[in-house]
Write a structure and sequence with these properties.
This protein has 70 residues and is an alpha+beta fold. It is built from two helices and four strands; from the N terminus they run ββααββ. A hairpin with a 2-residue loop joins strand 1 and strand 2. It starts with a strand and ends in a 6-residue tail after the last strand. 0% of the residues are buried.
């Protein structure tokens, strides 16, 4: 995975090379523990996330960087 800052946004990219999943199944059923954890984490940070299942399972998580001190 990768973590980087772009302007006032933090981006986290997480993924694996497993068999993936059907996007419609996940969007209709957020009952898996992993997806509930990611959804809760992103909500706490007032962020967004995207799901990818092209070559394994992947997430791109984005949230505002409100904690940096310059």
């Amino acid at each position: 995975g990768d973590v980087y800052k772009r302007q006032d946004e933090i981006v986290i990219i997480i993924g694996d090379n497993g068999s993936g999943f059907e996007k419609k199944d996940i969007k209709d059923n957020k009952s898996t523990l992993g997806l509930r954890l990611i959804d809760g984490f992103v909500r706490e940070l007032n962020g967004t996330y995207e799901l990818s299942s092209d070559q394994g399972t992947g997430f791109i998580i984005r949230f505002r960087d409100t904690y940096s001190v310059e």
